[in-house]
Design brief:
The complex is a heterodimer of chains A (292) and B (248).
Chain A lengths: L4 H21 L7 H22 L20 H26 L4 H23 L11 H17 L3 H29 L3 H5 L7 E5 L7 H6 L8 H21 L5 H24 L14
Chain B lengths: L11 E6 L8 H12 L7 E2 L7 E2 L4 E7 L7 E7 L8 H4 L6 E3 L6 E3 L9 H5 L6 E2 L6 E2 L5 H4 L12 H5 L5 E5 L6 H9 L15 E3 L26 H12 L1
Parallel strand pairs in B: 1-11
Antiparallel strand pairs in B: 1-10, 2-3, 4-5, 6-7, 8-9
Classes of the chains: A mainly alpha (292), B alpha+beta (248).
Protein backbone atom coordinates (compact mmCIF):
# COMPACT_ATOMS: atom_id res chain seq x y z
CA UNK A 1 0.00 0.00 0.00
CA UNK A 2 1.15 3.52 -0.75
CA UNK A 3 2.64 5.03 2.42
CA UNK A 4 0.98 8.44 2.02
CA UNK A 5 2.50 11.01 4.41
CA UNK A 6 -0.98 12.28 5.35
CA UNK A 7 -2.13 8.94 6.78
CA UNK A 8 1.20 8.23 8.46
CA UNK A 9 1.13 11.62 10.19
CA UNK A 10 -2.55 11.17 11.01
CA UNK A 11 -2.32 7.74 12.65
CA UNK A 12 0.88 8.64 14.53
CA UNK A 13 -0.07 12.08 15.89
CA UNK A 14 -3.73 11.34 16.53
CA UNK A 15 -2.86 8.08 18.26
CA UNK A 16 -0.47 9.94 20.54
CA UNK A 17 -2.91 12.81 21.14
CA UNK A 18 -5.85 10.58 22.02
CA UNK A 19 -3.51 8.47 24.18
CA UNK A 20 -2.71 11.57 26.22
CA UNK A 21 -6.44 12.43 26.32
CA UNK A 22 -7.14 9.01 27.83
CA UNK A 23 -4.67 9.59 30.67
CA UNK A 24 -5.85 13.17 31.25
CA UNK A 25 -9.44 11.96 31.35
CA UNK A 26 -8.54 9.29 33.90
CA UNK A 27 -6.97 11.98 36.07
CA UNK A 28 -3.45 10.60 35.67
CA UNK A 29 -2.03 13.27 35.99
CA UNK A 30 -4.83 15.09 37.88
CA UNK A 31 -4.01 18.55 36.67
CA UNK A 32 -5.81 21.90 36.92
CA UNK A 33 -5.06 25.51 36.03
CA UNK A 34 -2.08 26.41 33.87
CA UNK A 35 -0.53 22.95 34.09
CA UNK A 36 -3.79 21.50 32.74
CA UNK A 37 -3.80 24.16 30.01
CA UNK A 38 -0.44 23.03 28.65
CA UNK A 39 -1.30 19.33 28.88
CA UNK A 40 -4.60 19.80 27.03
CA UNK A 41 -2.97 22.07 24.46
CA UNK A 42 -0.51 19.30 23.56
CA UNK A 43 -3.27 16.67 23.47
CA UNK A 44 -5.48 18.82 21.22
CA UNK A 45 -2.62 19.91 18.95
CA UNK A 46 -1.67 16.28 18.32
CA UNK A 47 -5.16 14.82 17.92
CA UNK A 48 -6.70 17.67 15.92
CA UNK A 49 -3.50 18.16 13.90
CA UNK A 50 -3.54 14.49 12.98
CA UNK A 51 -7.21 14.59 12.02
CA UNK A 52 -6.61 17.63 9.81
CA UNK A 53 -3.68 15.88 8.15
CA UNK A 54 -5.99 12.97 7.31
CA UNK A 55 -8.25 15.26 5.30
CA UNK A 56 -5.32 16.20 3.03
CA UNK A 57 -5.58 12.99 1.01
CA UNK A 58 -9.28 13.45 0.28
CA UNK A 59 -10.40 14.26 -3.25
CA UNK A 60 -13.12 16.51 -1.85
CA UNK A 61 -12.27 17.64 1.72
CA UNK A 62 -15.06 20.25 1.58
CA UNK A 63 -17.58 17.40 1.76
CA UNK A 64 -15.94 15.80 4.81
CA UNK A 65 -19.04 16.50 6.93
CA UNK A 66 -20.87 13.79 4.95
CA UNK A 67 -18.51 11.22 6.49
CA UNK A 68 -20.63 11.32 9.67
CA UNK A 69 -23.64 9.73 7.99
CA UNK A 70 -22.82 6.01 7.73
CA UNK A 71 -21.82 5.06 11.30
CA UNK A 72 -23.96 1.91 11.21
CA UNK A 73 -21.65 0.18 8.68
CA UNK A 74 -18.50 2.24 8.21
CA UNK A 75 -15.57 2.31 10.65
CA UNK A 76 -14.37 5.56 9.07
CA UNK A 77 -17.70 7.16 9.92
CA UNK A 78 -17.60 5.72 13.47
CA UNK A 79 -14.12 7.14 13.88
CA UNK A 80 -15.37 10.58 12.87
CA UNK A 81 -18.16 10.42 15.48
CA UNK A 82 -15.95 9.10 18.27
CA UNK A 83 -13.25 11.69 17.57
CA UNK A 84 -15.60 14.67 17.56
CA UNK A 85 -17.56 13.41 20.59
CA UNK A 86 -14.32 12.74 22.47
CA UNK A 87 -12.87 16.14 21.64
CA UNK A 88 -16.09 17.91 22.69
CA UNK A 89 -16.46 16.07 26.02
CA UNK A 90 -12.79 16.54 26.80
CA UNK A 91 -13.18 20.21 25.82
CA UNK A 92 -15.76 20.74 28.57
CA UNK A 93 -13.68 18.70 31.02
CA UNK A 94 -10.56 20.71 30.09
CA UNK A 95 -12.32 24.08 30.34
CA UNK A 96 -13.59 23.29 33.85
CA UNK A 97 -10.14 22.07 34.94
CA UNK A 98 -8.23 24.99 33.43
CA UNK A 99 -10.49 27.92 34.32
CA UNK A 100 -12.30 26.74 37.46
CA UNK A 101 -9.80 24.28 38.90
CA UNK A 102 -12.60 21.75 38.88
CA UNK A 103 -12.14 18.16 37.75
CA UNK A 104 -15.46 16.45 36.96
CA UNK A 105 -14.40 12.80 37.05
CA UNK A 106 -17.45 11.49 35.15
CA UNK A 107 -16.73 13.79 32.22
CA UNK A 108 -13.09 12.72 32.25
CA UNK A 109 -13.95 9.01 32.20
CA UNK A 110 -16.43 9.57 29.37
CA UNK A 111 -13.87 11.55 27.36
CA UNK A 112 -11.21 8.91 28.00
CA UNK A 113 -13.61 6.19 26.83
CA UNK A 114 -14.48 8.08 23.65
CA UNK A 115 -10.78 8.72 22.98
CA UNK A 116 -10.09 5.00 23.31
CA UNK A 117 -12.99 4.21 20.95
CA UNK A 118 -11.49 6.67 18.44
CA UNK A 119 -8.15 4.84 18.42
CA UNK A 120 -9.92 1.47 18.09
CA UNK A 121 -12.07 2.80 15.22
CA UNK A 122 -8.96 4.09 13.43
CA UNK A 123 -7.34 0.67 13.72
CA UNK A 124 -10.51 -1.08 12.53
CA UNK A 125 -10.46 0.91 9.26
CA UNK A 126 -7.34 -1.10 8.42
CA UNK A 127 -8.13 -4.32 10.29
CA UNK A 128 -11.46 -4.85 8.50
CA UNK A 129 -9.83 -5.09 5.04
CA UNK A 130 -9.65 -8.74 3.99
CA UNK A 131 -7.94 -7.49 0.85
CA UNK A 132 -4.81 -6.60 2.87
CA UNK A 133 -3.99 -9.79 4.81
CA UNK A 134 -1.17 -8.16 6.81
CA UNK A 135 -3.66 -5.74 8.40
CA UNK A 136 -6.50 -8.24 8.68
CA UNK A 137 -5.40 -9.69 12.04
CA UNK A 138 -6.24 -9.21 15.71
CA UNK A 139 -2.83 -7.69 16.51
CA UNK A 140 -3.57 -4.60 14.36
CA UNK A 141 -6.02 -2.99 16.82
CA UNK A 142 -3.85 -4.17 19.71
CA UNK A 143 -0.84 -2.45 18.12
CA UNK A 144 -2.71 0.83 17.59
CA UNK A 145 -4.17 0.85 21.10
CA UNK A 146 -0.98 -0.20 22.91
CA UNK A 147 1.18 2.30 21.01
CA UNK A 148 -1.35 5.06 21.70
CA UNK A 149 -1.54 4.24 25.43
CA UNK A 150 2.24 3.97 25.80
CA UNK A 151 2.78 7.33 24.08
CA UNK A 152 -0.05 8.89 26.09
CA UNK A 153 1.38 7.65 29.39
CA UNK A 154 4.80 8.99 28.43
CA UNK A 155 3.40 12.44 27.54
CA UNK A 156 1.32 12.42 30.74
CA UNK A 157 4.44 11.68 32.80
CA UNK A 158 3.02 8.39 34.12
CA UNK A 159 6.36 6.62 34.37
CA UNK A 160 5.19 3.33 35.89
CA UNK A 161 2.32 2.96 33.45
CA UNK A 162 4.49 4.06 30.54
CA UNK A 163 7.25 1.55 31.28
CA UNK A 164 4.79 -1.35 31.43
CA UNK A 165 2.98 -0.11 28.33
CA UNK A 166 6.18 0.36 26.31
CA UNK A 167 7.15 -3.22 27.11
CA UNK A 168 3.70 -4.52 26.08
CA UNK A 169 3.48 -2.29 22.99
CA UNK A 170 6.97 -3.35 21.88
CA UNK A 171 6.09 -7.05 22.16
CA UNK A 172 2.83 -6.48 20.25
CA UNK A 173 4.76 -4.59 17.56
CA UNK A 174 7.13 -7.55 17.12
CA UNK A 175 4.16 -9.91 17.03
CA UNK A 176 2.41 -7.78 14.42
CA UNK A 177 5.45 -7.96 12.17
CA UNK A 178 5.94 -11.67 12.72
CA UNK A 179 2.32 -12.68 12.12
CA UNK A 180 1.99 -10.10 9.33
CA UNK A 181 4.93 -11.55 7.38
CA UNK A 182 3.10 -14.79 6.71
CA UNK A 183 -0.50 -13.55 6.62
CA UNK A 184 -0.68 -13.28 2.83
CA UNK A 185 0.62 -16.79 2.24
CA UNK A 186 -1.50 -18.20 5.11
CA UNK A 187 -4.66 -16.64 3.65
CA UNK A 188 -3.96 -18.71 0.53
CA UNK A 189 -4.61 -16.00 -2.05
CA UNK A 190 -2.81 -16.79 -5.30
CA UNK A 191 -2.99 -15.76 -8.94
CA UNK A 192 -4.96 -19.00 -9.43
CA UNK A 193 -7.70 -18.08 -6.92
CA UNK A 194 -7.74 -14.54 -8.28
CA UNK A 195 -8.27 -15.58 -11.90
CA UNK A 196 -9.93 -18.97 -11.45
CA UNK A 197 -7.48 -20.33 -14.04
CA UNK A 198 -5.97 -23.65 -12.96
CA UNK A 199 -3.19 -24.21 -10.46
CA UNK A 200 -0.59 -21.81 -9.10
CA UNK A 201 2.73 -22.16 -10.86
CA UNK A 202 1.08 -23.01 -14.15
CA UNK A 203 -0.25 -19.51 -14.66
CA UNK A 204 1.63 -16.27 -15.00
CA UNK A 205 0.75 -12.70 -15.86
CA UNK A 206 1.78 -12.41 -19.50
CA UNK A 207 0.90 -8.84 -20.28
CA UNK A 208 -0.39 -5.90 -18.25
CA UNK A 209 -3.68 -4.32 -19.34
CA UNK A 210 -1.94 -1.04 -20.15
CA UNK A 211 1.46 0.29 -21.09
CA UNK A 212 1.79 2.84 -18.30
CA UNK A 213 0.88 2.70 -14.65
CA UNK A 214 -2.54 3.29 -13.07
CA UNK A 215 -4.26 4.34 -9.86
CA UNK A 216 -4.42 0.75 -8.57
CA UNK A 217 -0.70 0.15 -8.99
CA UNK A 218 0.28 3.48 -7.44
CA UNK A 219 -2.09 3.13 -4.51
CA UNK A 220 -1.99 -0.59 -3.75
CA UNK A 221 0.98 -2.28 -5.38
CA UNK A 222 3.60 0.06 -3.92
CA UNK A 223 7.01 -1.54 -3.50
CA UNK A 224 9.52 1.27 -2.96
CA UNK A 225 10.03 1.11 0.79
CA UNK A 226 10.33 -2.64 1.22
CA UNK A 227 14.00 -2.46 0.27
CA UNK A 228 15.02 -1.08 3.68
CA UNK A 229 12.41 -2.98 5.66
CA UNK A 230 14.83 -4.68 8.07
CA UNK A 231 16.75 -1.50 8.88
CA UNK A 232 13.51 0.41 9.37
CA UNK A 233 12.18 -2.30 11.69
CA UNK A 234 15.29 -2.02 13.84
CA UNK A 235 14.90 1.76 13.92
CA UNK A 236 11.17 1.56 14.61
CA UNK A 237 11.62 -0.89 17.47
CA UNK A 238 14.72 0.78 18.93
CA UNK A 239 13.52 4.36 18.77
CA UNK A 240 9.82 3.70 19.20
CA UNK A 241 9.83 1.36 22.19
CA UNK A 242 13.24 0.24 23.52
CA UNK A 243 15.00 3.60 23.89
CA UNK A 244 12.03 5.43 25.50
CA UNK A 245 11.69 2.56 27.97
CA UNK A 246 15.38 2.72 28.90
CA UNK A 247 15.29 6.51 29.20
CA UNK A 248 12.27 6.68 31.53
CA UNK A 249 13.31 3.88 33.89
CA UNK A 250 16.75 5.45 34.31
CA UNK A 251 17.11 6.59 37.93
CA UNK A 252 16.63 10.34 38.26
CA UNK A 253 15.26 10.74 34.75
CA UNK A 254 13.84 14.25 34.55
CA UNK A 255 12.03 16.31 31.96
CA UNK A 256 15.13 16.45 29.79
CA UNK A 257 15.36 12.68 29.29
CA UNK A 258 11.56 12.55 29.11
CA UNK A 259 11.65 14.97 26.19
CA UNK A 260 14.27 12.86 24.42
CA UNK A 261 12.08 9.80 25.03
CA UNK A 262 9.09 11.56 23.44
CA UNK A 263 11.05 12.56 20.32
CA UNK A 264 12.56 9.09 20.05
CA UNK A 265 9.12 7.46 20.39
CA UNK A 266 7.64 9.75 17.75
CA UNK A 267 10.44 9.04 15.24
CA UNK A 268 10.19 5.30 15.89
CA UNK A 269 6.45 5.35 15.45
CA UNK A 270 6.77 7.24 12.16
CA UNK A 271 9.08 4.46 10.93
CA UNK A 272 6.67 1.82 12.22
CA UNK A 273 3.69 3.38 10.45
CA UNK A 274 5.68 3.86 7.25
CA UNK A 275 6.31 0.12 7.32
CA UNK A 276 2.69 -0.57 8.26
CA UNK A 277 1.65 0.84 4.89
CA UNK A 278 4.67 0.11 2.71
CA UNK A 279 4.91 -3.57 3.70
CA UNK A 280 1.19 -4.21 3.34
CA UNK A 281 0.33 -6.08 0.16
CA UNK A 282 -3.09 -5.82 -1.44
CA UNK A 283 -4.51 -8.89 -3.19
CA UNK A 284 -5.19 -6.87 -6.36
CA UNK A 285 -1.44 -7.13 -7.03
CA UNK A 286 -2.05 -10.80 -7.91
CA UNK A 287 -3.80 -9.74 -11.12
CA UNK A 288 -0.67 -7.81 -12.09
CA UNK A 289 1.70 -10.68 -11.42
CA UNK A 290 2.90 -9.51 -8.00
CA UNK A 291 3.38 -12.69 -5.92
CA UNK A 292 2.73 -14.76 -9.04
CA UNK B 1 -27.04 4.05 2.19
CA UNK B 2 -24.10 1.77 2.75
CA UNK B 3 -26.17 -0.97 4.37
CA UNK B 4 -26.47 -3.68 1.74
CA UNK B 5 -29.98 -4.75 0.69
CA UNK B 6 -30.95 -8.16 2.19
CA UNK B 7 -31.68 -9.31 -1.32
CA UNK B 8 -32.15 -7.72 -4.71
CA UNK B 9 -35.11 -8.48 -6.98
CA UNK B 10 -32.75 -9.02 -9.89
CA UNK B 11 -29.01 -9.60 -10.14
CA UNK B 12 -27.91 -7.85 -13.30
CA UNK B 13 -24.38 -8.65 -14.31
CA UNK B 14 -21.95 -9.88 -16.92
CA UNK B 15 -20.80 -13.30 -17.99
CA UNK B 16 -17.34 -13.18 -19.55
CA UNK B 17 -16.24 -16.01 -21.79
CA UNK B 18 -12.48 -16.47 -21.42
CA UNK B 19 -12.56 -19.05 -24.17
CA UNK B 20 -13.85 -16.57 -26.71
CA UNK B 21 -12.15 -13.31 -25.73
CA UNK B 22 -9.46 -12.43 -28.26
CA UNK B 23 -7.93 -9.62 -26.23
CA UNK B 24 -8.72 -6.82 -28.68
CA UNK B 25 -9.50 -4.29 -25.89
CA UNK B 26 -12.52 -2.98 -27.83
CA UNK B 27 -14.61 -3.24 -24.63
CA UNK B 28 -12.04 -1.10 -22.81
CA UNK B 29 -12.36 1.66 -25.39
CA UNK B 30 -16.15 1.40 -25.70
CA UNK B 31 -16.42 1.67 -21.90
CA UNK B 32 -14.05 4.63 -21.73
CA UNK B 33 -15.94 6.35 -24.54
CA UNK B 34 -19.45 5.85 -23.20
CA UNK B 35 -18.56 6.70 -19.62
CA UNK B 36 -16.64 9.80 -20.61
CA UNK B 37 -19.39 11.21 -22.79
CA UNK B 38 -22.38 10.31 -20.65
CA UNK B 39 -23.33 9.87 -16.97
CA UNK B 40 -21.01 11.25 -14.28
CA UNK B 41 -17.58 12.83 -14.24
CA UNK B 42 -15.60 12.02 -17.42
CA UNK B 43 -12.85 9.40 -17.19
CA UNK B 44 -9.83 11.68 -17.32
CA UNK B 45 -6.31 11.06 -18.56
CA UNK B 46 -3.15 12.73 -17.39
CA UNK B 47 -0.23 13.28 -19.77
CA UNK B 48 -2.18 11.31 -22.39
CA UNK B 49 0.23 12.09 -25.23
CA UNK B 50 3.35 12.51 -23.09
CA UNK B 51 6.03 10.19 -21.81
CA UNK B 52 4.10 8.92 -18.79
CA UNK B 53 0.43 8.56 -19.69
CA UNK B 54 -2.03 7.47 -16.99
CA UNK B 55 -5.81 7.53 -16.89
CA UNK B 56 -9.01 6.22 -15.38
CA UNK B 57 -10.55 3.05 -16.81
CA UNK B 58 -13.50 1.03 -15.55
CA UNK B 59 -12.63 -2.04 -17.54
CA UNK B 60 -9.17 -3.44 -18.22
CA UNK B 61 -8.03 -6.54 -20.08
CA UNK B 62 -5.22 -8.60 -18.53
CA UNK B 63 -3.47 -11.44 -20.36
CA UNK B 64 -2.28 -14.62 -18.68
CA UNK B 65 -0.21 -17.54 -19.87
CA UNK B 66 -1.17 -21.03 -18.70
CA UNK B 67 1.23 -23.93 -18.97
CA UNK B 68 -0.77 -27.17 -18.65
CA UNK B 69 0.78 -30.44 -17.46
CA UNK B 70 0.59 -31.68 -21.02
CA UNK B 71 -0.11 -29.88 -24.23
CA UNK B 72 0.80 -26.47 -25.56
CA UNK B 73 0.79 -23.27 -23.50
CA UNK B 74 -2.34 -21.13 -23.69
CA UNK B 75 -2.83 -17.40 -23.66
CA UNK B 76 -5.97 -16.24 -21.86
CA UNK B 77 -7.25 -12.70 -22.23
CA UNK B 78 -8.98 -11.63 -19.09
CA UNK B 79 -11.29 -8.58 -19.07
CA UNK B 80 -11.96 -7.29 -15.57
CA UNK B 81 -14.46 -4.71 -14.33
CA UNK B 82 -16.77 -4.37 -11.31
CA UNK B 83 -18.39 -7.71 -10.43
CA UNK B 84 -21.39 -6.08 -8.68
CA UNK B 85 -20.90 -8.34 -5.64
CA UNK B 86 -23.87 -9.40 -3.54
CA UNK B 87 -21.76 -8.84 -0.43
CA UNK B 88 -19.91 -5.79 -1.70
CA UNK B 89 -17.18 -4.74 0.78
CA UNK B 90 -16.70 -1.44 -1.08
CA UNK B 91 -20.20 -0.33 -0.13
CA UNK B 92 -20.12 -1.02 3.61
CA UNK B 93 -16.82 0.80 4.22
CA UNK B 94 -18.01 4.03 2.59
CA UNK B 95 -18.31 6.75 5.27
CA UNK B 96 -20.61 9.06 3.31
CA UNK B 97 -23.19 6.78 1.75
CA UNK B 98 -21.95 7.70 -1.73
CA UNK B 99 -21.50 4.02 -2.53
CA UNK B 100 -24.64 1.94 -2.65
CA UNK B 101 -26.11 -1.25 -4.05
CA UNK B 102 -29.50 -0.93 -5.70
CA UNK B 103 -32.23 -3.16 -4.26
CA UNK B 104 -34.09 -3.38 -7.59
CA UNK B 105 -31.31 -4.76 -9.81
CA UNK B 106 -28.19 -5.18 -7.66
CA UNK B 107 -26.07 -2.63 -9.52
CA UNK B 108 -23.34 -1.06 -7.34
CA UNK B 109 -23.07 2.68 -7.95
CA UNK B 110 -21.32 5.78 -6.63
CA UNK B 111 -23.21 8.99 -6.05
CA UNK B 112 -20.48 11.36 -7.17
CA UNK B 113 -21.88 14.40 -5.40
CA UNK B 114 -21.52 12.61 -2.03
CA UNK B 115 -18.09 11.05 -2.63
CA UNK B 116 -15.27 12.68 -0.62
CA UNK B 117 -12.58 10.76 -2.51
CA UNK B 118 -11.11 8.99 0.54
CA UNK B 119 -10.28 5.89 -1.51
CA UNK B 120 -11.25 3.38 1.19
CA UNK B 121 -13.70 1.57 -1.13
CA UNK B 122 -10.90 0.97 -3.65
CA UNK B 123 -8.84 -0.57 -0.82
CA UNK B 124 -11.76 -2.79 0.18
CA UNK B 125 -12.28 -4.16 -3.35
CA UNK B 126 -10.18 -7.28 -4.04
CA UNK B 127 -10.61 -6.97 -7.80
CA UNK B 128 -9.25 -3.49 -8.47
CA UNK B 129 -12.61 -2.47 -9.90
CA UNK B 130 -12.62 1.06 -8.53
CA UNK B 131 -10.33 3.84 -9.64
CA UNK B 132 -10.11 7.37 -8.29
CA UNK B 133 -10.34 9.94 -11.04
CA UNK B 134 -7.46 12.35 -10.56
CA UNK B 135 -9.17 15.31 -12.22
CA UNK B 136 -12.62 14.92 -10.62
CA UNK B 137 -11.34 13.69 -7.23
CA UNK B 138 -14.16 11.14 -6.97
CA UNK B 139 -14.27 7.36 -7.19
CA UNK B 140 -15.24 5.90 -10.55
CA UNK B 141 -16.53 2.41 -11.21
CA UNK B 142 -18.51 0.36 -13.72
CA UNK B 143 -22.18 1.39 -13.66
CA UNK B 144 -23.20 -1.61 -15.79
CA UNK B 145 -24.14 1.23 -18.18
CA UNK B 146 -27.18 2.02 -16.08
CA UNK B 147 -27.75 4.94 -18.46
CA UNK B 148 -27.99 2.58 -21.46
CA UNK B 149 -29.80 -0.51 -20.21
CA UNK B 150 -32.98 1.38 -19.22
CA UNK B 151 -32.63 4.13 -21.82
CA UNK B 152 -35.73 4.24 -24.01
CA UNK B 153 -34.14 6.84 -26.27
CA UNK B 154 -31.79 4.17 -27.56
CA UNK B 155 -32.75 1.49 -30.10
CA UNK B 156 -33.57 -1.73 -28.27
CA UNK B 157 -30.44 -3.59 -29.40
CA UNK B 158 -28.31 -0.86 -27.80
CA UNK B 159 -29.87 -1.27 -24.35
CA UNK B 160 -27.00 -3.29 -22.96
CA UNK B 161 -23.63 -2.25 -21.52
CA UNK B 162 -21.29 -0.60 -24.04
CA UNK B 163 -18.64 -3.32 -23.53
CA UNK B 164 -21.15 -6.07 -24.36
CA UNK B 165 -22.58 -4.18 -27.33
CA UNK B 166 -19.16 -3.60 -28.85
CA UNK B 167 -17.49 -6.99 -28.29
CA UNK B 168 -16.73 -8.32 -31.78
CA UNK B 169 -16.13 -11.85 -30.52
CA UNK B 170 -19.32 -12.21 -28.49
CA UNK B 171 -17.28 -12.93 -25.38
CA UNK B 172 -19.39 -10.74 -23.08
CA UNK B 173 -22.98 -11.48 -22.08
CA UNK B 174 -25.36 -9.33 -20.07
CA UNK B 175 -28.42 -10.46 -18.17
CA UNK B 176 -30.13 -11.34 -14.89
CA UNK B 177 -28.02 -13.85 -12.99
CA UNK B 178 -30.67 -14.05 -10.29
CA UNK B 179 -33.06 -15.74 -12.72
CA UNK B 180 -32.06 -19.38 -13.17
CA UNK B 181 -33.86 -19.53 -16.53
CA UNK B 182 -32.15 -16.52 -18.08
CA UNK B 183 -29.77 -17.05 -20.99
CA UNK B 184 -26.79 -15.93 -18.93
CA UNK B 185 -27.62 -18.26 -16.01
CA UNK B 186 -27.97 -21.19 -18.40
CA UNK B 187 -24.66 -20.29 -20.01
CA UNK B 188 -22.98 -20.26 -16.60
CA UNK B 189 -24.51 -23.64 -15.74
CA UNK B 190 -23.54 -25.19 -19.07
CA UNK B 191 -19.97 -23.94 -19.09
CA UNK B 192 -19.18 -24.19 -15.37
CA UNK B 193 -18.85 -20.46 -14.73
CA UNK B 194 -16.69 -19.49 -11.75
CA UNK B 195 -16.38 -16.67 -9.19
CA UNK B 196 -13.16 -14.71 -8.90
CA UNK B 197 -11.50 -14.92 -5.45
CA UNK B 198 -14.36 -16.89 -3.86
CA UNK B 199 -12.32 -16.96 -0.62
CA UNK B 200 -12.99 -13.22 -0.20
CA UNK B 201 -16.66 -13.93 0.50
CA UNK B 202 -17.85 -11.11 -1.75
CA UNK B 203 -20.29 -13.31 -3.71
CA UNK B 204 -19.67 -11.65 -7.09
CA UNK B 205 -22.60 -11.55 -9.51
CA UNK B 206 -20.40 -11.50 -12.64
CA UNK B 207 -19.20 -14.94 -13.68
CA UNK B 208 -16.23 -16.08 -15.74
CA UNK B 209 -16.44 -19.01 -18.16
CA UNK B 210 -13.12 -20.88 -18.08
CA UNK B 211 -11.28 -21.64 -21.33
CA UNK B 212 -12.36 -24.94 -22.90
CA UNK B 213 -9.74 -27.74 -22.99
CA UNK B 214 -7.50 -27.28 -25.99
CA UNK B 215 -6.10 -29.84 -28.44
CA UNK B 216 -3.10 -31.84 -27.29
CA UNK B 217 0.04 -32.51 -29.34
CA UNK B 218 -1.18 -35.93 -30.46
CA UNK B 219 -4.51 -34.61 -31.66
CA UNK B 220 -3.04 -32.98 -34.73
CA UNK B 221 -4.07 -32.70 -38.33
CA UNK B 222 -4.41 -35.75 -40.64
CA UNK B 223 -1.59 -34.34 -42.75
CA UNK B 224 0.77 -34.19 -39.77
CA UNK B 225 2.43 -37.57 -40.47
CA UNK B 226 3.77 -36.08 -43.70
CA UNK B 227 5.56 -33.42 -41.70
CA UNK B 228 7.43 -35.77 -39.35
CA UNK B 229 11.22 -36.04 -39.87
CA UNK B 230 11.84 -38.24 -42.89
CA UNK B 231 14.66 -40.51 -41.75
CA UNK B 232 17.15 -40.94 -38.93
CA UNK B 233 19.81 -42.09 -41.41
CA UNK B 234 19.66 -39.78 -44.39
CA UNK B 235 20.96 -41.21 -47.68
CA UNK B 236 22.36 -39.65 -50.86
CA UNK B 237 23.36 -35.99 -50.93
CA UNK B 238 21.74 -35.17 -47.56
CA UNK B 239 23.48 -38.17 -46.06
CA UNK B 240 26.86 -37.00 -47.38
CA UNK B 241 26.17 -33.45 -46.08
CA UNK B 242 25.18 -34.80 -42.67
CA UNK B 243 28.33 -36.87 -42.38
CA UNK B 244 30.51 -34.04 -43.70
CA UNK B 245 29.15 -31.58 -41.17
CA UNK B 246 29.61 -34.14 -38.36
CA UNK B 247 33.26 -34.45 -39.27
CA UNK B 248 33.96 -30.72 -39.10
Amino acid sequence: MHPAPSVIIFTTLSGLGFGLMIFLGLGEPAVTGWTAFWFFLIAYALSVGGLLASTLHLGHPERAIKAFSQWHTSWLSREAWAAVAGLLVMGVYAALAVFFGLRVAVLGYLGAGLSLVTVIATSMIYTQLKTVPRWNQVLTPLHFVSASLAGGALLGGQITAASVLFLVAGIIQLGHWRVGDSRFADAGHTIASATGLGQPGRIRAFEAPHTGTNYLLKEMVHVVARKHAVKLRVLAFGLGYALPLVLIVMPGAGHMLGGVAVISHLLGLFASRWLFFAEAEHVVGLYYGARG
Amino acid sequence: MTRLPDQTSRKLGLVIDLDTCVGCHACVIACKGWNTENYGAPLSDQDAYGADPVGTFLNRVHSYEITPEAGPAQLVHFPKSCLHCEDAPCVTVCPTGASYKRAEDGIVLVNETDCIGCGLCAWACPYGAREMDKTAGVMKKCTLCVDRIYNENLPEQDREPACVRTCPAGARHFGDLGDADSAVSQLVAARGGVDLMPDMGTKPVNKYLPPRPKDTWDQTDVLAPFLTPIADNPQGFLGWLDRALDRL
